[in-house]
Each structure stands twice: as C-alpha cells, then as structure tokens.
C-alpha cells in the first residue's frame, strides 16, 4: 500500500473518478445537446464518489488494471446518479435539491430527468461491456451480470419499490434491513465486487470482500438515517429531515438515535472483521469503513 494518508488518497481517487467520468460522458455539444448537458450537469462536480472509492480500493487489492477499474468506477457512479435523478422526481421523493444544486427536473424538466436516468443507466453497461476491456470475456460477463443484478428489481430498483410501498407503515427491523440491503446495499456490494473482479482474486477472498461489502452497505444506510435527523440541509446538500416528513420508516424511527449509533459501530466492527484474512492489502477498505461510519454528509 502507498504511504500517503487516507484523506490524500481519497482526494486523489475522487479526482480520478471525476476525470474518468468527464471522459466517459458524451460531450455537451454532441446532439441531443440538452440531454447530454443535463447528464453532465448532474454527474460531474458533486457527490462523495463512495462507490468508485470502494471499487478503486478493492481493485488495488487485486492488482486491477487502471483503465478497467476506471470503467467499473464510472459504471457504478452512472447507476448511482441515475437512481438519485429518478428518486428526486415528483413521482417519487419530489425533491428540489441534490448535491447542493437544483435537481434535474427542476433545472431542466421532468422528461429530461427521466431520460437522463435512462441514458446514465445504459451508459453504465456500455462502459462495462466495452469490447476488449477485460482480457477474459467470462470475467467481464460476470462483472456485467453483477452490476445488472445489483441495479434491477432484485437489487436497488426492487429496494426502491419496497421503500415506496413502506411509507406510513411500521416495518420491523428485519423488514427495514431487507429494504436497505436492496436499495442501498446492493450497489455498494457491487462496487466492492466489481473492483475485485477487475483484477485477480480467489473465491475465498472474494467471499471475505462480499461479507465486508454487505456490512458497509447497511452501515452506509444506518448513518444516512442518522444524518437525516442530525445534520442540516446546507451540510447534506440535500433536504434534511425528509424521512420523518415523508413518514418513512428508518433506523432512527425504529431503534432510536442511540441504538442506531450502536448498530453503526457494530456494523463497522463486522466489516473490519471480514477483512482480517486479507491483511495489510485491505487497509484502504478498512479506512473507508471508518470514513463511512464517521462521515458528516
Ligand atoms: C429510482 C431505481 C431508483 C432507485 C433509487 C438510491 C436510491 C434508490 C434513492 C436515493 C435516496 C436515498 C436517500 C437513498 C439512501 C442512501 C443513499 C443512496 C444516499 C445517497 O448516496 P450518497 O450519500 O450520495 O453516496 P452522493 O451525492 O454523495 O453520491
């Protein structure tokens, strides 16, 4: 592992993701200009890039070539941004602010927001399926399949459907966990797996990474629920207090604040334990778990 600090590494990798996205998105001048401009408006210059960071950290552990890893990181971020754009639309969460700026349907219009999400989703698969990106086509197909599963009705989109159907309901902790393992956890898990699959890894190590990824996927959501009640809109760059306002079940509404904090520490410890057998190579993933549990926005 390089000896730069975690915060320097994180800044470097966020910049790397930004440049890769900049190169991968169609130019705003390319027709249809309004759609391409809106895709760039919402994807570039914002967000923590947590999914690319996870892919980069897992890929470094398996010696993944950088071009392949950049494609995986961009594909993950494209799926994530598409989900945010659609989630913010009036037919879903109806929000006007995302990453500190007006949401796509507010800045442009609803039809454009719908198309931006659609186009980002297909761009993700365009990038990951590029001919010759992987030396081994079977490995590439596995990566594409992993992302498809994580994004669709058996992953993120399915979790969103459960979320929409849960408004006003008193979910059990187990039901809430199922929802979040799909809505948030599936793509975070795919981020770790895609990064690892971009390099060389044996199945037991991949399993260890998968356990880590499951824990941090849930951890991410528990922290998100805590921040929704404790942080302000300016810090979050999105509307704070939205879950309670929409009568959505959350970890905080079900467990309370202090037990949610305890759960976050337990999940961080689980994530850490999963990495034990991977040794020093997994240090950035350990640091990312720590970052996720202590993040302020
Ligand atoms: C519309 C198919 C579809 C899915 C939407 C991800 C999602 C599912 C909805 C977003 C709403 C939400 C609050 C989800 C839970 C946590 C989450 C994914 C927050 C946003 O992710 P961050 O914090 O955002 O990584 P940035 O802006 O930093 O990339």
CATH architecture: Orthogonal Bundle
Largest beta-sheet characterization:
2 strands, antiparallel
CATH third-level topology: Farnesyl Diphosphate Synthase
The share of residues in extended strands comes to under 5%
Alpha-beta content class = mainly alpha
Helix content: over 70%
Query: What string, H for helix and E for strand, traces the elements in order?
Result: HHHHEEHHHHHHHHHHH
| Shape assignment | globular
| Bound heterogens, unique | geranylgeranyl diphosphate
What is the CA-CA span between the terminal residues? 27 Å
Number of separate domains: 1
Can you tell me the CATH class? Mainly Alpha
Unreliable runs, pLDDT <50, ≥5 residues? Answer: none
Helical segment count: 15
Number of beta-strand segments: 2
Strand order across the largest sheet: 1-2
Cofactor: Mg(2+)
GO molecular function, one term: prenyltransferase activity
InterPro entries: Isoprenoid_synthase_dom_sf (IPR008949), Polyprenyl_synt (IPR000092), Polyprenyl_synt_CS (IPR033749), Prenyl_diphosphate_synthase (IPR053378)
Protein name: Geranyl transferase
